[in-house]
Specification:
This protein is of the alpha/beta class and about 260 residues long. The chain has nine helices and twelve strands. It has a single domain, classed as 3-Layer(aba) Sandwich (Rossmann fold).
């Protein structure tokens, strides 16, 4: 069963057609990355896949059922979204903030009780933010806050994880830590991941599949090594350059060299 499938998705904002018939099936346990220029509709598609934005035409099926028929709670048990920005209440500690992930999945009862449940503790540990559990979120740096936001999504303990630019604000070490963590979760727990990653090399390295959006439709769809090449650079980003593939430590990696 395909856990998440977009069928003929059209989204317009006023006169502006952003998605013009997007078809996308996300396989169970795969990591799929959305590529495309700024403004190509990646975030919009992620929001549609998360059930937060209803398309004007077409729709999304979650586990084969139309998303439009499902309750928010049902969706939250299946899908966690790390958006580009998460609102937070002034004074909320990291632990209180991350516990909101339990609310999404379990409702108000999930927030009761003094002790953290396992998912909250695990999420704080996995993202290496446990040392700030009692610190108000606003006292953290942008990078620390980004990991706390990921912890909130992980605490939801959903099998499908949607990540909108999860490495924003992170230095290179923490970028790699976050991407490695997501890869470990994907492999160990069979998570299905859909991400927007700006770094093409990282998208190629971590994703099983990439889908490039251009002018509101899917321009390319396939394994990174099959899809990411000089033509894609040119056609999707308007950039002339070379795409070089190298293997180190048995892992295929990619670098973009603009002309
Ligand atoms: P990307 O994630 O690829 O940068 P987005 O999905 O964020 O692209 O945006 C695609 C286009 O849709 C942009 O032109 C953006 O301005 C527009 N857009 C996105 N959300 C809204 C909205 N809520 N209202 C009006 N326009 C929007």
């Amino acid at each position: 069963m395909t856990p998440l499938r977009a069928e003929g998705v059209h989204v317009r904002f006023g006169e502006h057609a952003v998605l013009k018939g997007v078809d996308l099936a996300v396989g169970a346990g795969e990591w799929l990355s959305l590529l495309g220029q700024n403004g190509s509709g990646k975030t919009t598609l992620l929001r549609v896949l998360a059930g937060l934005l209803a398309p004007q035409d077409g729709g999304v099926r979650l586990d084969g059922r139309p998303m439009a028929d499902l309750s928010r709670r049902h969706i939250a048990r299946r899908i966690a979204l790390l958006p580009q920005a998460t609102p937070y209440v002034q004074g909320l500690t990291v632990r209180q903030f991350v516990r909101q992930g339990r609310y999404a999945a379990r409702g108000p009862l999930g927030m009761l009780g003094e002790s953290d449940d396992d998912q909250v503790r695990q999420a704080l540990r996995d993202t290496e933010v446990a040392q700030w559990a009692d610190t108000p979120v606003e006292r953290l740096s942008g990078g620390q806050r980004q990991r706390v936001r990921l912890a909130l999504a992980l605490a939801q303990d959903a099998p499908i994880l949607l990540l909108d630019e999860p490495t924003t604000y992170l230095d290179i070490r923490h970028q790699i830590d976050v991407l490695n963590l997501v890869r470990d979760l994907q492999r160990e727990r069979g998570l299905t991941v859909v991400s927007v990653l700006h770094d093409l090399g990282q998208a190629a390295r971590y994703s099983d599949r990439v889908v490039a959006l251009k002018e509101g439709v899917v321009h390319a769809d396939g394994a990174p090594s099959e899809v990411v090449d000089a033509d894609l650079l040119h056609d999707v980003y308007g950039v002339a350059g070379q795409v070089l593939w190298i293997t180190t430590n048995g892992v295929l990696k990619m670098v973009v060299v603009p002309d």
